[in-house]
Structure formats: structure tokens, C-alpha cells
Amino acid sequence: MKAGRRGEWLLTLPSFGWLLVFFLVPTLIVFAFAFKPSDPFGGVGAGWTTQALVGIADPQYAAILWRTVWLSLLTTALCLVLATPAGYAIARAEPRARARLLLLVIVPFWTSFLIRIFAWKVLLHPEGTFKHALVELGLVPEQATLLYTPGAVLLVMVYTFLPFAVLPIYAAAEKFDFQLLEAARDLGAGRLRAFVEVFLPGIRRGLLTAFLVVFIPALGSYVIPDLVGGPGGEMLGNKIAQRVFVDRNLPHASALSAFLILAVLLPLAAVLALQAQRRRSGVSGEEGA
Amino acid sequence: MKRSRLPLAVTWLLLAFFYLPIVVVVVSSFNGARFGSGFEGPTLDWYRRLFAHEEIWPAVVNSLLVAAGATLVSVVLGTTAALALHHFRGRLQRLHYALIYTPLVVPEILMGISLLLFFAAIGLELGLFTIFLAHVSFCLSYVAMVVLGRLQDFDDSVVEAARDLGAGWWAIAWRILLPLLAPGILAGGLLAFTLSIDDFVISFFVAGPGSTTLPIRIYSMIKHGSPPLINALSTLLLLVTFLAVWLSQRLRARSET
Predict the structure, then answer these.
(1) In chain B, which ranges are continuous DSSP H helix?
(2) Is the ipTM of this complex over 0.90?
(3) What is the pLDDT of residues A25-36, one digit of tens each?
(4) Do A11 and B36 touch (CB under 8 A)?
(5) Measured between beta carbons, which residues in chain B are less than 8 angstroms from residue A88?
(6) Which of A4, A173, B8, B33 sits at 20 to 30 Å (Cα–Cα) from A122?
(7) Which of B118, B215, B241 has its CB closest to that of A29?
(8) What pLDDT score does A286 carry?
(9) Topology of domain B55-225, per CATH?
(10) B93: contact with A, CB 8 A cutoff
(11) Is the Cβ pair B109, A129 closer than 8 Å?
């Protein structure tokens, strides 16, 4: 369809303009405000300073940053480990069962994010059902605290992000030619070896997408550590929110956010570069999708 | 060759894990005891108290207003974006695609804080209007992706045939593209509406006094309020969600036959 330059601009401009104003410019403002002084009224003052950048060099932030990274990495690893067999099983199910299983995975996606976190708060509560069940089973001692720990943050993050990991892995597994697995078995590979050396490389793209869609939002987690983490489970997102809502220091919040933006861009750029390199060297010639 | 049962077992365990908290919330909402430690007889007491709770209803109205407005605008912007991305190639569209795609992967808190700073910089007062602007900004990308997906299995020859028969671009848009794309646009709109109704993080950053939405109210109830009331509210919201999913499934089943 060749509607010409004018048609292209007419269709492109509304969304392009909107996102330019409400997405790109605000992101750039984050970097600009990191170099502004704060004023006593909760706004930003005139002139430029590195005060906020010096402020985030505080050792308390190093500990928070470290916790943010390891919690996000562990969440991503657990999600990938759990989502891979699930994606495999759904892709190999009969078409009718497949549609049902997929729907069952998607429905929690549609329910309110806050309510799912709240549900875990009820379960992990010192007087909650789940805690009682674990004590009855002898899995945890009576006086153990489950809520307000980094462990609780990890559990709820895995719970929240797992559907996001299952979907891309399933999508990749669905296109995988399962006869390759049988060929590997016929050639004498064990079940596990065939899975690791044939299936996993075959769904590489799905695994990479799953890594990105879990790891990046995990780095920016704020509500989960806020509601189930307590002071020992705080992450970078909590510190940004505290600078905004508690002591209203916008330049400080901007400096931390600028840091988070860079932390998010790093894995994104790495994965995109990896894919581009593969495409150039033609390694992934067999998977056009 | 015998297949391992392990993957299917893991899948069922995951589904149990997914639904366990949801089931607990629903059961607790009918439980007389406060923390679900033991079951003290079924009761509708929490629902009665919920309906008597004055602070919830204005928040529901605010959420519906924002979601309706954001859905309407993002459906228009998302659909034009998808059409542009589908029909044109070149540097402009590559940039356009990057601009549409990035908000999908950026953590919500970054979108929230950057919009807060932006509104502070231009001196726009925070309130329902700023929440609406923020919601359009993230819903747009989702709508564009859903409609783009629909366009990719679209038979372009229908449009060419119409043009050969002398249809102008307006007639093509209204009488061919729109009806054929309607299921995709509807699905995108439904997604936008759900995302807007459910959004907490971004709304929390750009909300002002008097613009409390339902998720913001729920958040403050979780922080300071009474758990059984939230159980009851959650159960009602889950019911609405399941109805919406069921409806959209029926809609899709109908459009495919």
C-alpha cells in the first residue's frame, strides 16, 4: 500500500509525538534533574550541581544495589528453571489441552497485581494458613518469620514474574521440531542430555526473551519489597520512592533513577548485541522467527 | 518412545502455585476469623462492611473515568501506530518501533518517576488528568502490538481489490480495514482497559490530592487497613476479571469461526 509520504506522517505522527513528549523527554529529564540542586519546597532549584550524585555514593546504597541485583538474578534463574519444563510440557500437549493450559497460565496475569501480593501477605502472615501448614509439616520452626524477609521478596517476585517467563518459552518450544529430540535419543543420547544439548539451544530465543522480561522489571521492583520485604528486603525502587514520597528530594530520586535506567539498558543492550552478532555470523540460520 | 512425565508434573505444580493464593483470598473473604487461622463459619459480614465503606466508591469512579479515557485515546493512537508500522518501512518506522517497544520493557517505577519529574518541570498540577496522560503513554504500546499482530495475518489483497474497484482511502479505511481489524482493536482496547484499571505504580507517582484510584486505595488498605475487607474486595475484582476473560474468549471464538 503506497499512500505516500503524507499518509505515512499522518499515521505516524500521533503516536510518535505522544511518546516523544510523554516518554522520551521525561526520560531525558531524569538525567537532567540528577544534576540539579533540591530546593526546600520539594522542587528543584536553579543552576547545576553534582550534589545528588555525591549523595548516592553513600555505602547504604551499595548494599541496596547489591541486594537488588542478586534478588533479580535469583528470581530470573528460578523463573527460567521452572518455566522451561512448563513451556515444554504445554508445547507437547494435545491442541485442546494446550489451549486450556495456556489459559490457566494467562488468567493470573489478568488479576490485580496488588491483590496477588496481598494474598501472599495473608499466606505468610505469622497467623496465616500457609505458615501454620508449614509448621505442622515440621518444615519451619514455630517462631520463624516468613514475612518481611528477602526470602519473602524472592518468593513473591518469582510468583509474579513466572507467567511472563512461561509465555515466550512456550512460544519458542511450540516452533521446535520435537523429532530432533527423538533423533538425539536414537543416536544414543540420554533423556537429560538430549534436553540440554538439543532442546535448550533450540529454544534459545525464547529463553533470552524470558530473561529480559523477568530480569528488567525485577530490577525495578518496588511494590513487592515494599509490601512483603520490610527494612531487610528493600530494593533500589524503594529508595527511589522514599526520596520522592518521604523526604521529597527529587534530584536525589533522579540520580538513583538514572542509575536504574543504566542498569536496565546494560542487559538489554547485551542481549540485543548478542542476537545481532548471531544473525550476522549466521549461526541461527535455522530459526527465522 | 516413552516421554518423561516430569515436565507435565512441574506444570501442574506451577498452576497449583499460581492459584493457591487466589483460592486462599476467596475462601478467607467468607471466613469470620480475622487472619484465616481456623475457619469460623461462613459469613457475608465483610461484604456488608465493604459496601458501607465510603472511601472505596469515589476511587472506583476515578479508576473507571481514567480507564475509559485512556482506553479511548490509546486505541486510536495505537491503531494508527500499528497501521504505520505495518505499511511503511524505513528509518522513520524503525525509530517509531523503538519508541513503541521500549515502554513495554522499562520498569514501571522509571515511567512513574520520569513522568512525575516531567509534570513538575512543566508545572502541570497532579491529578486525574496527569494519571490519564500517564496511562495513555503505556497503554498505547500494548494496543499497537496487539493490532500489529492482527495486521500480520491480514490479507492485503482485499485492500488492493477494493482500490482496483475504485474505492478511495477513506472508504477503504472505514469499510474494509476497520471492520476486519475490529477484533484486534477490541482485544487491544480490552487489554488497555485492564492495564489502566490495574495500574498502581505509575498512578501512585503522578496522583495528586483527590485523585485516588482504586489500586491506590487498595494499596493504602493493604498498608493500614483491615485484611478481611480487602479479601472481600479482591474476590469481587477476581469475579469481574474472570468474567472479562471468559467474555473475551467467547468473542475470540466467535470471530475465528
Answers:
(1) 6-28, 45-52, 56-87, 91-105, 108-122, 128-152, 157-164, 169-172, 178-198, 201-206, 214-224, 227-256
(2) no
(3) 999 999 999 998
(4) no
(5) 7
(6) B8
(7) B118
(8) 41
(9) MetI-like fold (1.10.3720)
(10) yes
(11) no
Domain boundaries of chain B, sorted by first residue: 6-46, 55-225
Q: Which of B190, B186, B219, B228 is nearest to B27 (CA)?
A: B228
Q: Which three cell numbers stand for residue B116?
A: 512525575
Please report the number of interchain residue pairs, chain A to chain B, with beta-carbon separation below 8 angstroms: 250
Bridge partners of residue B42, in order along the sequence: B31
Mean pLDDT in chain A? 87
At residue B42, the 3 state secondary structure works out as strand
For residue B37, what are the CA distances in angstroms to A116, A155, B32, B102, B236? 19, 22, 10, 45, 22
Long-range contacts of A104-108 (CB under 8 A, 24+ apart): A104/B15, A104/B18, A105/A163, A105/A166, A105/A167, A105/A170, A105/B14, A105/B15, A105/B18, A106/A163, A106/A167, A106/B245, A107/B241, A107/B242, A107/B245, A108/A163, A108/B18, A108/B19, A108/B22
Minimal CA separation from A282 to chain B, in Å: 22
B173 DSSP 8-state letter = I
Which of B96, B136, B219 lies nearest to residue A12, judging by beta carbons? B96
Mean pLDDT of A161-174: 94
Q: Does A112 touch chain B (CB under 8 A)?
A: yes
Q: B 45-84 residues with CB below 8 A of A? A: 76-78, 80-81, 83-84
B 158-217 → A contacts, CB under 8 A: 159-160, 169, 194, 198, 200-201, 205, 215
Contact (CB, 8 A) for A106 and A163: yes
Q: Which CATH number fits domain A71-234: 1.20.1740.10, 3.40.50.740, 3.40.630.30, 1.10.3720.10?
A: 1.10.3720.10
The Cα–Cα gap between B109 and B130 comes to: 16
Residues 148-167 of B with CB under 8 A from A: 156, 159-160
Using alpha carbons, list the distances in angstroms from residue B123 to A82, B113, B116, B130, B212. Answer: 47, 15, 10, 11, 20
For the stretch B89-118, pLDDT in tens is 888 999 999 999 889 889 999 999 999 999
Ranges of each domain in chain A? 71-234
* Distance between A285 CA and the closest CA of chain B, angstroms: 22
